[in-house]
Amino acid sequence: EVQLVESGGGLVQPGGSLRLSCAASGFTFSNYWMSWVRQAPGKGLEWVANIKQDGSQKYYVDSVRGRFTISRDNTKNSLYMQMNSLRVEDTAVYHCARIGGSGSYFDYWGQGILVTVSS
Amino acid sequence: QSALTQPASVSGSPGQSITISCTGTNSDVGGYNYVSWYQQHPGKAPKLMIYEVSNRPSGVSNRFSGSKSGNTASLTISGLQAEDEADYYCSSYTRTSTVVFGGGTKLTVL
Q1: Which secondary-structure segment (H or E) carries B11?
Q2: Residue B100: its chain A contacts at CB < 8 A?
Q3: Which residues does residue A38 pair with via DSSP β-bridges, in sequence order?
Q4: Which of A108, B51, B56, B80 sits CB 3.0–4.6 Å from A98 for a disulfide?
Q5: Chain A residues with CB-CB distance to B under 8 A?
Q6: Which residue of chain B has the CA closest to A46?
Q7: Neighbours of B50 (CB within 10 A)
Q8: A7-26 as b/e, with b when 16 or more CB fall inside 10 Å?
Q9: Adjacent-strand bridge partners of A25
Q10: Cβ(A96)–Cβ(A70) under 8 Å?
Q11: Interface contact A102-B91, CB threshold 8 A
């Protein structure tokens, strides 16, 4: 059974940093692109970043480029998101998601972890 | 990276069919057969319902179907059931190798 479990969320002040982790199990992690998708309270889904199987390609939404860094450790079956210079508008539930087949869709999702940026 | 356009809400009675539209541009929906649809119940993680425009993952009811014409994709749910009441999101791969979601549609089963 595919499982994705996020951790590392919490309350942080504007300008602060946080590192999210996603522990993957039930599939060969190193064979898949992975992604972070977020959802602000009461709002819709927003794609944040993708990373290739070997970490050699990374893509970001414009609003986080230069502040967030997606990475992975295939030896630990783990996905990460380093979030720096956090803004109030980054407040959201952050979901880890596996990217399926053609690389265009998210076939498994974690339950998500809440990040709150507030003073 | 502008969001795809979906209606804010749709509704239907049990047994009826509804269609949710998702409009993008030539740089996303119209340029690739890489549209997917997700169902999200309150407090739950999204669930993949349709991928690559019209493919259903294993385990998803055949009451759910997808299509695309030009820059607009559509999700049709036939034989509406109470459990279908949820938020629905479309997404598309884009020419810049990023992904864009629609704003979401709240489906109410009357």
Answers
A1: strand B9-12
A2: 47
A3: A46, A94
A4: A108
A5: 35, 37, 44-47, 50, 59-62, 95, 100-112
A6: B101
A7: 26
A8: ebbeebeeeeebebbbbbee
A9: A3
A10: no
A11: no
Contacts of B93 in chain A (CB under 8 A): 103-104
The DSSP letter of residue B2 is: P
* Amino acid, res. B56: R
Band of residue B75 on the pLDDT scale cut at 50, 70, 90: very high
Q: How many CB atoms lie within 10 A of CB A3?
A: 12
**For residue B86, is pLDDT > 90?**
yes
For A3-50, how does the pLDDT look when each residue is reduced to its tens digit (9 = 90+)?
999 999 999 999 999 999 999 999 999 999 999 999 999 999 999 999
The DSSP result for A6-56, as a single string, is EE--EEE-TT--EEEEEEEESS-GGGS-EEEEEE-TTS-EEEEEEE-TTS-
CB contact (8 A) between residue A109 and residue B46: yes
CA distance B91 to B48: 11
Nearest 5 degrees, angle CA A16-CA A19-CA A25? 165
The terminus-to-terminus CA distance of chain A in angstroms comes to 40
Instruction: Tally Cβ neighbours within 10 Å of residue A44.
Output: 16
Compute the distance between CA of residue A58 and CA of residue B86 in angstroms, rounded to an integer.
Answer: 32
